[in-house]
Amino acid sequence: MVKFIFPIISIVFFISMLSFGSLTASYNNITDQATEAIRRGSSSDLAKHFGNNIDLVIPGSDGTYSKSHAKHILRNFFSDNRPESFTVNHQGSSRDGSLYVIGTFETTDNKSYRTYFLVKKVSGNFFIHQLQFELQ
After folding, report:
1. What pLDDT, on a 0 to 100 scale, did the predictor assign at position 18?
2. Under a CB-based contact definition with an 8 Å cutoff, are residues 25 and 33 in contact?
3. Which DSSP string corresponds to 87-100?
4. Of 45, 129, 30, nearest in space to 83 by CA
5. Residue 54 lies in domain
6. Do 83 and 74 contact (CB within 8 A), yes or no?
7. How open is the CA angle 75-122-55, to the nearest 5 degrees?
8. pLDDT in tens, the chain (136 residues)
9. Domain with 110 in it: what CATH number?
10. Fewer CB within 10 A of the end CB, N or C, for the chain?
11. Residue 11 zone, left/alpha/beta (φ > 0; ψ -120 to 50; rest)
12. Residue 56 class from Cβ within 10 Å (0-12 exposed, 13-18 middle, 19+ buried)?
């Protein structure tokens, strides 16, 4: 009986590591794609990662919006604030397992926005739950 315990524990450990690796890969994938979408000022690519609703804070708009409405608001924001660069300053995870990214969004007319987004897992999928652009 003891001979079988070690292989079973090893298999369970291996499967859990694969699950954790795919979880980390999914988080990294969405944060990398969202970061690139912000860098390019692409509201369409960014909105692909929204759930049905998103908490959005940008100058002139602060609230919870549907995916399509938030995409429209961001399209206008990026149109008025052409991207020069986006730099990730910090990223990490919250106690509840959410992942956050804090960065600086620079525009072609020398505006600088502190940018924050929060990724949460909902029903097995990862979505951007909150997005903020605050003028510095």
Report:
1. 42
2. no
3. EEEEEEE-TTS-EE
4. 45
5. 2-135
6. no
7. 35
8. 556 565 555 555 444 444 444 344 465 689 999 999 999 999 999 999 999 999 999 999 999 999 999 999 999 999 999 999 999 999 998 888 899 999 999 999 999 999 999 999 888 889 999 999 999 9
9. 3.10.450.50
10. N
11. alpha
12. buried
Task: Tell me what pLDDT residue 17 has.
Answer: 45
Q: Is the dihedral of CA 15, 29, 57, 115 positive or negative?
A: positive
Spatial distance between the Cα atoms of 91 and 98, rounded to a whole number of angstroms: 11
Cβ-contact 34, 101 below 8 angstroms? yes
Report how far residue 13's alpha carbon sits from residue 15's, in angstroms, rounded to the nearest whole number. 6
60: left (phi over 0), alpha (psi -120 to 50) or beta: left
Q: Which amino acid is at 130?
A: Q
Residue type, 85: S
